[in-house]
Amino acid sequence: MNVIAVNSSPRGGGRSKTELMLNHLVEGMRAAGAEVDTVNLREKKIKNCIGCFTCWTKTPGQCIHKDDMTTEIYPKWLAADLAVYATPLYFHTMNSAMSTFKERTLPAVQPFFEKDAAGNTFHPLRQKVPAAVWLSVCGFPQASEFDALSDYLNRTRHQDAPIVAEIYRTAAENMTTAFYEDEARDILDATTRAGRELVETMTISAETLGRITQPFVDPTAFAQMGNLFWKTCIVEGVTPRKFDEENMVPRPDSLETFMLLFPAGLNAEAAGNRKVILQFHFSGQVDGTCYFEVASGRIEAREGTSTNPDLTIETPFDVWMDIMTRKADGQQMFLDQKYRVTGDLALMIALFKRDEGHRD
Questions:
Q1: Which one, of 99, 161, 101, lies nearest residue 130 by Cα?
Q2: pLDDT by residue (tens digit) across 262-321?
Q3: Please, where are the H alpha helices in the chain?
Q4: Given CB 3.0 to 4.6 Å as the disulfide criterion, which of 41, 82, 95, 196 pairs with 32?
Q5: Is the pLDDT score of 245 beyond 70?
Q6: pLDDT at 355
C-alpha cells in the first residue's frame, strides 16, 4: 500500500501532539508493510487557490501555480492508495494550512455537474484519488469538540473518495505531562496498532479506537491545571513554548491546586514496598494542612492532618511555592531556616529526587 501522510501542524521540534500521534500511526503502517511518505506542510511553499479555474479549462488537471504543491505533493497524493490528513483543531475545524492543501486538490475534479443517488449535485472525479483517514487533536477534554470538523468532512467528502477512519484525541497537551504518562503510553500504542489495522483491513477496530479516544483527564482537574498554566505564563510574560523550554512549573495559588499539582514532582518509587506519608503545614498567604500518601508507585493527596506522618514540612506557602517553581533553592532555604522538616531527611531527599528536566 502506498500512503501519503499530510501533517499541517505548524509546530516542530517535538512540540506537536498532532505530529506525535501521526508518527505512531505511520510507525504502525510501515510495520504492516506500507510505503509511507510524510509531508510536513510547514516546510513547503503552497500558494492559495485563486479560483481562476485554469485547472478546469486551459490546462485540465494542472494548477496555474508552480509551487511545491504542483511539482511535488499533488503527484504523490494522486499516486497514493490512502491519504492521512493530520491537523490540529483550530476553531473547531482543520487549520488554514490543511484547508489550503485541500483547496489545491481542485484539479482532481472536473467542472461538469452530475447527481448522486440521493439527487445531490457533484463534480465527477478526473481520476482516482486516495481514500482518507483524518486525525486531529485538541486541548479541550470533551469529544464533542470534534463534532463540527467531523460533520464538515462527511458533508463535503466526494462520493468516490471514502473516509475510512476518523481519529480524534482530546486533551492532547496533557499527553506529554508526567501525570498521564501511563495513559499516554497506552494511547500511543493503540495509535500504532491502528496504523497496522488500516494497512491490513482499511479500518480501525472499535477496541483500538476506544483505546485511542479513552478519557484520561478529570474535567475539573483539567481546568484547574490549565488555568494555573496560563496564569503562570501571563505573570511571567512567557509563551507556552518558552514555558516548556525553560522547564517552568505552574504556580499553585491554593491548597487545592497545590494538592493537585505537587504529586507530579514526587518520586513515588522512593517509597518502595511501604506506605509513606508526607505532611504539609502551610502558613501565610495560604493557611492550611494537607498530606500525601505514597504507596505502590502511586500518590494520593488528602486535606487535613495525618496521625502518623513519616515527614512533616512546616513552611510559609509562598516559600514552598518558590521552591516548587524553581525560583528558590530548596536546600538553601532549608539551611536559611525558611521552613522546617521533621522526620526522615533521607526519605525526603529520595522523594524529591526527580529529574528536573523531566517533562515527558
A1: 161
A2: 988 888 888 888 899 999 999 999 999 999 999 988 899 999 999 999 999 999 999 999
A3: 17-31, 68, 74-79, 96-103, 147-156, 181-201, 206-212, 219-236, 240-245, 255-261, 317-324, 330-335, 345-352
A4: 196
A5: yes
A6: 42
Q: Are 316 and 282 in contact (CB under 8 A)?
A: yes
Three cell numbers at 9?
501542524
Q: Please give the Cα distance from 141 to 221 (Å, whole number).
A: 11
Provide the mean pLDDT of the chain: 93
pLDDT at 359 over 80: no
pLDDT at 235 over 70: yes
Q: How far, in Å, CA of 288 to CA of 344, rounded?
A: 22
Would you say residue 35 has pLDDT above 90? yes
Q: DSSP label at 178?
A: G
Are the C-beta atoms of 31 and 194 separated by less than 8 Å?
no
- Partnered with residue 143 across adjacent β-strands are none
By 3-state DSSP, what share of the chain in percent is helix, strand and coil, each rounded to 5? 45, 20, 35
Average pLDDT over residues 86-106: 97
Cα distances (Å, whole numbers) of residue 118 to 122, 151, 161, 198, 342:
11, 18, 17, 29, 76
Helix 17-31 / helix 181-201 crossing angle, nearest 10 deg: 50
Which residue type sits at 276? Answer: V
Closest CA to 4 of 89, 69, 92: 69
Q: Quickly count: other Cβ atoms within 10 Å of residue 52's Cβ.
A: 12
Residue 132 has pLDDT above 50, yes or no: yes
272: left (phi over 0), alpha (psi -120 to 50) or beta: left
Question: Residues of 57-76 as b/e, b for ≥16 C-beta within 10 angstroms?
Answer: eeeeeebebeebbbeebbee
> What are the two backbone dihedrals, phi and then psi, of residue 345, each rounded to the nearest 5 degrees?
-65, -35
